[in-house]
Amino acid sequence: MAEKRSAKLTVAVLLGLLLLAAGPAVRVTAELQPDEPVQQRTILVRLRPAGCLRAEVVRLGDVAEELRGAGSEEPVLRRLILGRAPAPGRVAIWTRDEVLQRLRRARAYDWRVDGPDRIYLTVDVETVTAEDLQRAVAGWLQRHFPELLRVAGTQLRSYLRRPLYVPRHYGVVRLEPALLAGAPFRGDRLRVDVSVYAGDRLVATLPVYLEQRRDGEGSGIVQVGFEAGGDLPEAARSRPILVHRRDVVRLVARSRFFTVTATGQALQDGRLGQFIRVRNLKSQRVVVGRVVDRGVVEVIF
Q: CB burial class (10 A; 0-12, 13-18, 19+) of residue 51?
């Protein structure tokens, strides 16, 4: 009996050893077997006929009216970038097949596209016209130099031929006129440059001219509004001369963010509130500024 029990125990131990040796082999064999092919998710995209963009890129949500089969991934897929937005004021036309190709390049799904054959894409813009520029300059002149608007025969003119299109996603559009210190005078015209900002971004700087229609003899805007000793209004002639020709003056340039001072030499006499030409003694550049105090000329930005 003892021999039989010993034999059974030996057989059991041998079987256990065989199972332990065969277990990893079975597992490795199972791991080496090829996986079954994974079926791709099918997503149906129903296109909208047109899209109004508020960014510099085109996303799936801009062209898709409906997504079917996306499940919980729909918010992520709607932010999928398909391409660049058209230039402001332009229209881009994408075909249905083009949208399908862009989707396949962006994400490996089984895409199905339905809807119109063409999609018209534009950027949501705010339009700035010549009339907007002229109104901005008229208000600015009324606040700073109202005597100029009372000169007989003057008119504001902008030579902006086409509207300026500013994307709304840049920010709120504002117009800031200024007399630049370079050369605002051209003949009998006064040039006012209007900076077009959208948020904190400078989009463009556009000129507006204050012109005077001249019938025969008469003084131009430069003499009437700015030159000392010309045909000035009575109120201007009664103002004291605060800066004389060849005087050393202090140039002051102010903006919303900084104030810069420099030393200059007056090239002509100037009364309070008048514009005169001054040479910057450091750069030797001739600038135009307004007399604001005795020996002080402000360059307007």
A: buried
